[in-house]
Amino acid sequence: MTRIPRPRRTFAALVACGALTTAVASCGELEETGEAVKTRDQVTLVLDYFPNANHAAIYAAQSTGAFERAGLDVTIQPPNDASTPLKTLEAGQADFVVSYEPEVLLARDKGSKIQAVQALVQTPLTAVISLAKKPIRTAENFENTTIGTAGLPSQAAYLETILSEGRVDPAKVKRVDLGFNLTQPLVAGRVDASLGAFWNYEAIQLQREKKSPVTVKIEDLGVPTYNELVLTSTEETVRSRGPLVRRMVQAIGFGAKAVQKDPTVGVDAVMAAGGKGLDRGLQEASLEATLPVMFPKDTEHPFGWMDSIEWAQYARWMETHELITTSRVSARAITNEYLAGEGVGDKTSS
After folding, report:
1. Which of 6, 124, 266, 313 could be bridged to 341 by S-S, CB 3.0 to 4.6 A?
2. Quick one: pLDDT band at residue 11, thresholds 50, 70, 90?
3. What is the CATH number of domain 11-123+228-332?
4. CATH number for region 128-221
5. Alpha helices by DSSP H, the chain
6. CATH 3.40.190.10, the chain: domain bounds
7. pLDDT digits (tens, 9 = 90+) for 125-156
8. β-pairing verdict for 145-149 and 173-177
9. Residue 116 pLDDT level (bands cut at 50, 70, 90)
């Protein structure tokens, strides 16, 4: 089927859309013109983790003034714990949070009215990381091991699935909740592997420290593909504050393009946010590894695109493995309507 190119809109058009709710469906891509919204909405965004290269698009949107020009005063906060962002969102203590596709589906299956509005990373970053002295390369290698995770429900589900794939008795595997601290216990020998660390961050960090990590991507162990990081809000916010949602996601999209054009913009912004505790060389290497999976493979889709078919497939996999009660929760789990060039009524999948 021939695709009809959508008109590319200017930043001035985005500003107009922010003021006119009835026009929001036709508004499109954020582009720089120098015009800005004169009044600002206060927005709180809670990350999934401490500031790092995965958040380069968000911090670039802040450092380049994209949020400001979109009429947004955005406060970006790291979470207290890896398992708290969605709870913060549901409690009304944040307008947006960075979460993960599996967590969104798990929450919706429990009745939570949250919705992903933008994919920040298109593919899984989660990996199983071990060290060369006791490498884990296959599901069968999990037998008689201690595995550390960040404590997320999806990670426990991954481990269960991996053990099933390898026909490993769960009683022969011990799982330990490590929270944010996913690598130090591994190096210290407290765990045999970390499930939940990212191949584009912790694995690179260990390699730079000459720890000889052995990294296996989660999809190579039987878990289907999914959007690792997604910007998430509540259905109530999406429904009642559509113009703000559109300005938010398109400003982040502008930040992503700025990083794609010049990665230094993203690294500088992340370093400024993270302070002296961040290793610039690590952030540079991580961003270089991440950039290819920040954008959709199909270049006709805008930054942030989520494929509803893939979400449905992943949800069916979750249902098959009894992680959720019904795959139908994926139907309202995402919306592409506020992305550049998209509008109400547009298909959410090619």
Report:
1. 6
2. very low
3. 3.40.190.10
4. 3.40.190.10
5. 11-19, 56-63, 66-69, 85-90, 101-109, 153-165, 184-188, 202-208, 235-240, 242-261, 263-274, 280-294, 308-320
6. 11-123+228-332, 128-221
7. 999 999 999 999 999 999 999 999 988 877 88
8. parallel
9. very high
